[in-house]
Amino acid sequence: MRYHETKIIVRFNEIDAYRVAWHGHYVAWMEIGRNALAGRFDLDAFQLAALGYLGPVVGLELKFLRPARFNEELTIQTTLRRTDTATLEFNTTIVGPDGKKLATGVTTHALTDLDGVLQFQLPTVIAERVKRLLAWLEV
């Protein structure tokens, strides 16, 4: 299985009184990686909305393993898990400059139309894009 990599640098405003990255920023970093991967396959939030759909987060899991520190370059590794439902499940690993895992997480996104009506199967256009993404990931 492959994954998409996005590089970020921990900024000064992202550290807390303990001189480590504040935990809430990890969610934002996961979003950066997720949008970078999804955008490559025309599935980011704006691209979905242009098709008449939204992908709100309905589940979030995050496990902290090691702290990130100011000015470190982190690698956000993002992949998509194959599901049998009309959801998108992105798995993320945040890796430090030494190659060690700092955090792992999952976001689950339901699919709705623009009025918030839950979709029970992926529309054809979205299913085709997901299929291309999964093929690229070798899932």
Characterise the protein shown here:
By secondary structure, this protein is α+β, with helices and mostly antiparallel strands. The chain has a single domain, classed as Hotdog Thioesterase (Thiol Ester Dehydrase, Chain A), CATH 3.10.129.10. It has three helices and seven strands. A five-stranded antiparallel sheet has the order 1-4-5-6-3. Strands 2-7 form a two-stranded antiparallel sheet. A hairpin with a 5-residue loop joins strand 4 and strand 5. The longest helix has 17 residues. It is elongated. The chain starts with a strand and ends with a helix. The mean pLDDT is 97.
Which descriptors would you attach to this protein?
single chain; 139 residues; alpha+beta; Thiol Ester Dehydrase, Chain A; 5-stranded antiparallel sheet; two-stranded antiparallel ribbon; 7 strands
Number of strands: 7
Question: Would you state the CATH class?
Answer: Alpha Beta
CATH homologous superfamily label: Hotdog Thioesterase
Distance between the termini: 6 Å
Side-by-side strand order of the widest sheet: 1-4-5-6-3
CATH topology: Thiol Ester Dehydrase, Chain A
Shape: elongated
Low-confidence runs (pLDDT<50, min 5 residues)? none
Beta-sheet strand percentage? Answer: 25-35%
Mean pLDDT: 97
The biggest sheet amounts to: 5 strands, antiparallel
Helix content: 25-40%
Q: How large, in whole angstroms, is the Cα Rg?
A: 16 Å
Instruction: Give the total of domains.
Output: 1
Order of helices and strands: EHHEEEEEEH
The count of helical stretches stands at: 3
Q: Return the structural class.
A: alpha+beta
CATH architecture classification name = Roll
